[in-house]
Protein backbone atom coordinates (compact mmCIF):
# COMPACT_ATOMS: atom_id res chain seq x y z
CA UNK A 1 0.00 0.00 0.00
CA UNK A 2 2.91 2.32 0.65
CA UNK A 3 3.94 4.21 -2.51
CA UNK A 4 7.30 3.06 -3.83
CA UNK A 5 9.90 5.64 -4.74
CA UNK A 6 12.82 5.25 -7.12
CA UNK A 7 15.70 5.58 -7.03
CA UNK A 8 16.37 4.85 -3.34
CA UNK A 9 19.39 7.13 -3.38
CA UNK A 10 21.15 9.44 -5.81
CA UNK A 11 24.34 11.50 -5.73
CA UNK A 12 24.67 14.55 -7.94
CA UNK A 13 27.18 17.26 -8.66
CA UNK A 14 25.99 20.84 -8.36
CA UNK A 15 24.20 21.86 -11.54
CA UNK A 16 23.12 18.34 -12.52
CA UNK A 17 19.52 17.26 -12.93
CA UNK A 18 17.62 14.45 -11.22
CA UNK A 19 14.24 12.75 -11.42
CA UNK A 20 12.53 10.99 -8.50
CA UNK A 21 9.52 8.77 -9.11
CA UNK A 22 6.65 7.81 -6.82
CA UNK A 23 4.45 4.88 -7.84
CA UNK A 24 1.30 3.66 -6.17
CA UNK A 25 -0.75 0.49 -6.55
CA UNK A 26 -3.84 2.46 -5.46
CA UNK A 27 -5.63 5.28 -7.23
CA UNK A 28 -4.03 8.61 -6.52
CA UNK A 29 -6.12 11.77 -6.29
CA UNK A 30 -3.40 14.09 -5.16
CA UNK A 31 0.28 13.75 -4.36
CA UNK A 32 2.44 15.99 -2.25
CA UNK A 33 6.21 16.18 -2.24
CA UNK A 34 8.30 16.90 0.85
CA UNK A 35 11.98 17.31 1.59
CA UNK A 36 13.45 16.33 4.93
CA UNK A 37 16.92 17.35 6.01
CA UNK A 38 18.80 15.33 8.60
CA UNK A 39 17.36 15.81 12.09
CA UNK A 40 14.57 18.08 10.87
CA UNK A 41 10.89 17.71 10.05
CA UNK A 42 9.64 17.17 6.49
CA UNK A 43 8.91 20.41 4.65
CA UNK A 44 6.13 20.60 2.06
CA UNK A 45 7.39 21.41 -1.45
CA UNK A 46 4.44 21.13 -3.78
CA UNK A 47 1.11 19.57 -4.59
CA UNK A 48 0.09 17.60 -7.64
CA UNK A 49 -3.56 17.26 -8.40
CA UNK A 50 -5.60 14.76 -10.36
CA UNK A 51 -5.55 15.64 -14.04
CA UNK A 52 -1.80 15.85 -14.51
CA UNK A 53 -1.53 19.40 -13.29
CA UNK A 54 2.08 20.44 -12.81
CA UNK A 55 3.16 22.85 -10.14
CA UNK A 56 6.55 24.48 -10.02
CA UNK A 57 8.79 25.72 -7.25
CA UNK A 58 12.02 27.46 -8.26
CA UNK A 59 13.93 24.87 -10.28
CA UNK A 60 11.91 22.01 -8.84
CA UNK A 61 8.85 20.84 -10.73
CA UNK A 62 6.66 17.77 -10.73
CA UNK A 63 4.14 15.89 -12.79
CA UNK A 64 1.32 13.51 -12.08
CA UNK A 65 0.40 10.68 -14.43
CA UNK A 66 -3.02 9.48 -13.34
CA UNK A 67 -3.04 6.57 -15.75
CA UNK A 68 0.20 5.16 -14.40
CA UNK A 69 -0.60 6.15 -10.80
CA UNK A 70 2.79 7.81 -10.73
CA UNK A 71 4.22 11.17 -9.84
CA UNK A 72 7.69 12.39 -10.76
CA UNK A 73 9.74 15.15 -9.17
CA UNK A 74 12.24 16.99 -11.40
CA UNK A 75 15.18 18.81 -9.88
CA UNK A 76 16.92 21.04 -12.40
CA UNK A 77 20.40 22.52 -11.99
CA UNK A 78 20.66 21.11 -8.48
CA UNK A 79 22.05 23.18 -5.63
CA UNK A 80 23.78 22.07 -2.43
CA UNK A 81 20.63 23.04 -0.52
CA UNK A 82 18.67 20.35 -2.39
CA UNK A 83 20.38 17.62 -0.36
CA UNK A 84 18.02 15.65 1.86
CA UNK A 85 15.47 12.88 1.71
CA UNK A 86 12.48 13.35 -0.56
CA UNK A 87 9.13 11.79 0.21
CA UNK A 88 5.93 11.69 -1.73
CA UNK A 89 2.78 11.74 0.39
CA UNK A 90 -0.79 10.90 -0.39
CA UNK A 91 -4.12 10.37 1.32
CA UNK A 92 -6.62 7.66 0.59
CA UNK A 93 -9.54 9.85 -0.43
CA UNK A 94 -11.84 10.83 2.42
CA UNK A 95 -10.16 8.67 5.07
CA UNK A 96 -7.51 10.99 6.59
CA UNK A 97 -5.08 8.10 6.19
CA UNK A 98 -2.06 10.03 4.95
CA UNK A 99 0.95 7.91 4.12
CA UNK A 100 4.42 8.51 2.74
CA UNK A 101 6.42 6.85 0.02
CA UNK A 102 9.56 4.85 0.75
CA UNK A 103 11.82 7.90 0.33
CA UNK A 104 14.75 8.93 -1.88
CA UNK A 105 18.01 10.14 -0.35
CA UNK A 106 19.60 12.83 -2.50
CA UNK A 107 23.05 14.25 -1.98
CA UNK A 108 24.43 17.15 -3.99
CA UNK A 109 28.20 17.55 -4.03
CA UNK A 110 30.11 20.72 -4.79
CA UNK B 1 9.16 30.12 12.51
CA UNK B 2 7.38 26.81 12.52
CA UNK B 3 3.61 27.10 12.85
CA UNK B 4 3.32 23.72 14.55
CA UNK B 5 5.11 23.64 17.89
CA UNK B 6 6.18 20.44 19.60
CA UNK B 7 7.57 20.06 23.09
CA UNK B 8 9.89 18.80 24.36
CA UNK B 9 12.55 18.67 21.64
CA UNK B 10 14.32 15.78 23.32
CA UNK B 11 13.09 13.28 25.90
CA UNK B 12 14.88 10.45 27.66
CA UNK B 13 12.71 8.14 29.72
CA UNK B 14 12.95 4.83 31.49
CA UNK B 15 10.67 1.93 30.73
CA UNK B 16 8.60 2.53 33.87
CA UNK B 17 8.14 6.28 33.37
CA UNK B 18 5.05 8.17 32.27
CA UNK B 19 5.58 11.18 30.05
CA UNK B 20 3.65 13.25 27.51
CA UNK B 21 4.49 14.83 24.19
CA UNK B 22 2.71 18.04 23.29
CA UNK B 23 1.80 19.64 19.98
CA UNK B 24 0.13 22.99 19.30
CA UNK B 25 -0.96 24.68 16.08
CA UNK B 26 -2.71 27.99 15.44
CA UNK B 27 -3.40 27.69 11.74
CA UNK B 28 -7.05 26.77 12.17
CA UNK B 29 -6.40 23.24 10.92
CA UNK B 30 -8.97 20.69 12.01
CA UNK B 31 -6.95 17.52 11.35
CA UNK B 32 -3.95 16.60 13.50
CA UNK B 33 -1.60 13.66 13.18
CA UNK B 34 1.04 11.72 15.11
CA UNK B 35 3.81 9.99 13.19
CA UNK B 36 6.74 7.88 14.36
CA UNK B 37 9.93 7.99 12.34
CA UNK B 38 12.92 5.69 12.65
CA UNK B 39 16.29 6.55 11.12
CA UNK B 40 16.37 6.37 7.33
CA UNK B 41 12.67 5.41 7.17
CA UNK B 42 9.59 7.36 6.14
CA UNK B 43 7.22 8.74 8.80
CA UNK B 44 4.84 6.02 9.94
CA UNK B 45 1.25 7.05 10.70
CA UNK B 46 0.09 6.40 14.27
CA UNK B 47 -3.06 8.46 14.96
CA UNK B 48 -5.28 11.00 13.23
CA UNK B 49 -7.76 13.36 14.86
CA UNK B 50 -10.28 15.23 12.78
CA UNK B 51 -12.53 17.82 14.42
CA UNK B 52 -11.15 16.66 17.79
CA UNK B 53 -12.34 13.08 17.26
CA UNK B 54 -10.04 10.11 16.80
CA UNK B 55 -10.40 9.06 13.17
CA UNK B 56 -7.51 6.67 12.73
CA UNK B 57 -5.55 4.43 15.09
CA UNK B 58 -3.07 2.39 13.10
CA UNK B 59 -3.06 -0.53 15.54
CA UNK B 60 -0.71 1.33 17.84
CA UNK B 61 0.12 -0.42 21.17
CA UNK B 62 -1.86 0.87 24.15
CA UNK B 63 1.31 2.18 25.80
CA UNK B 64 0.76 5.14 23.43
CA UNK B 65 -2.37 7.12 24.27
CA UNK B 66 -3.38 10.15 22.19
CA UNK B 67 -5.52 13.03 23.38
CA UNK B 68 -6.95 16.06 21.60
CA UNK B 69 -8.20 18.54 24.26
CA UNK B 70 -9.21 21.15 21.66
CA UNK B 71 -8.73 22.04 18.01
CA UNK B 72 -5.28 23.53 18.64
CA UNK B 73 -3.73 20.94 20.93
CA UNK B 74 -2.66 17.34 20.54
CA UNK B 75 -0.97 15.22 23.18
CA UNK B 76 0.64 11.82 23.14
CA UNK B 77 0.81 10.11 26.53
CA UNK B 78 3.55 7.55 26.96
CA UNK B 79 3.66 4.76 29.55
CA UNK B 80 5.79 1.65 29.96
CA UNK B 81 7.59 2.12 26.66
CA UNK B 82 10.13 -0.26 25.22
CA UNK B 83 13.61 0.59 23.88
CA UNK B 84 12.37 -0.08 20.34
CA UNK B 85 9.96 2.86 20.76
CA UNK B 86 12.93 5.20 20.59
CA UNK B 87 12.37 7.38 17.51
CA UNK B 88 11.53 10.84 16.25
CA UNK B 89 7.85 11.60 16.95
CA UNK B 90 6.33 14.09 14.55
CA UNK B 91 3.11 16.01 14.92
CA UNK B 92 1.41 17.44 11.83
CA UNK B 93 -1.74 19.35 10.99
CA UNK B 94 -3.78 20.02 7.88
CA UNK B 95 -7.13 21.13 6.61
CA UNK B 96 -9.37 18.05 6.65
CA UNK B 97 -9.96 17.98 2.92
CA UNK B 98 -8.53 15.89 0.12
CA UNK B 99 -5.48 17.55 -1.34
CA UNK B 100 -4.35 19.45 1.74
CA UNK B 101 -0.67 18.97 2.60
CA UNK B 102 0.64 18.35 6.09
CA UNK B 103 2.46 20.97 8.13
CA UNK B 104 4.92 19.42 10.56
CA UNK B 105 6.33 20.42 13.89
CA UNK B 106 10.06 19.97 14.50
CA UNK B 107 9.51 16.69 16.31
CA UNK B 108 10.45 15.17 19.65
CA UNK B 109 13.50 12.91 19.72
CA UNK B 110 12.56 10.17 22.19
CA UNK B 111 15.05 7.77 23.77
CA UNK B 112 13.79 4.93 25.95
CA UNK B 113 16.40 3.44 28.26
Description:
The complex is a heterodimer of chains A (about 110) and B (about 110). With about 110 residues, chain A is mostly beta strands. Chain A has no helices and eleven strands. In chain A, the strands form two sheets. In chain A, strands 2, 4, 5, 9, 10 and 11 form a six-stranded mixed β-sheet that branches. Chain A has a five-stranded antiparallel β-sheet with strand order 1-3-8-7-6, with no helix packed on it. Chain A is globular. Chain B is mainly β. Chain B contains no helices and eleven strands. Chain B has strands at about 5, 10-15, 20-25, 30-35, 45-50, 55, 65-70, 75-80, 85-95, 105, 110. In chain B, strands 2, 4, 5, 6, 9, 10 and 11 form a seven-stranded mixed β-sheet that branches. Chain B has a four-stranded antiparallel β-sheet with strand order 1-3-8-7, with no helix packed on it. In chain B, β5 (about 45-50) and β6 (about 55) form a beta hairpin. Chain B is globular and about 40 Å long. The mean pLDDT of chain B is about 95.
Task: Provide key terms for this protein.
heterodimer, A: 110 residues, mainly beta, 6-stranded mixed beta sheet, 5-stranded antiparallel beta sheet, 11 strands, globular, B: 113 residues, 7-stranded mixed beta sheet, 4-stranded antiparallel beta sheet
Can you tell me the overall shape of chain A? globular
Distance between the termini of chain A: 37 Å
The end-to-end distance of chain B, rounded to whole angstroms, is 32 Å
What Rg of chain A, in angstroms, do the CA atoms define?
Answer: 13 Å
Class by SSE composition of chain B: mainly beta
Q: Give the CA-based shape of chain B.
A: globular
Structural class of chain A: mainly beta
**H/I helix tally of chain B:** 0
Order of helices and strands of chain B: EEEEEEEEEEE
* Largest sheet properties of chain B: 7 strands, mixed
> What's the helix count of chain A?
0
Number of DSSP E strands of chain A: 11
Amino acid sequence: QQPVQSPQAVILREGEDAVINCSSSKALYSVHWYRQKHGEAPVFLMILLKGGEQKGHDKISASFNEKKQQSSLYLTASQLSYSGTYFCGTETSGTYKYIFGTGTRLKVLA
Amino acid sequence: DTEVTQTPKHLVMGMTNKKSLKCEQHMGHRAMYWYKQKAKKPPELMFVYSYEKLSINESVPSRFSPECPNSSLLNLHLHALQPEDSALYLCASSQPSTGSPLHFGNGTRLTVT
